[in-house]
Amino acid sequence: MAKYLLLKHYRGAPAAVNDVPMDKWTPEEISAHMQYMSDFAARLEETGEFVDGQALAPEGAWVRYDGEGRPPVTDGPFAETKDLIAGWMVIDVDSYERAVELAGELSAAPGAGGKPIHEWLELRPFLTEPPTVTE
Question: What's the pTM value of the predicted model, to 2 decimals?
């Protein structure tokens, strides 16, 4: 089994086929989208392929260490940022092909007009071994 991260970009990814921003959707369209996501996760829980997933608020900040005894440095919030991740899901599957299959299915979540979004999802494998450094 291999773990993969599915990232749902609200902004910053290539345009979806049904590219109507969520803030233009009706409450019913938002409910249908959230129900699809919930049903998808529940189905993967039954097969043992779901690990975790969450929707994210648009607000965020960059944080970094600033030295011993000093408070962390922050920069933000950046709700207007070019790239905005709307949520994520971690899956644990038998193969890369299965991860691609599930990402494609998740991409079909309904959006405006009840039509599938066909959004691009970022699929990233978990690092299983530290990279080998040769000199």
Answer: 0.81
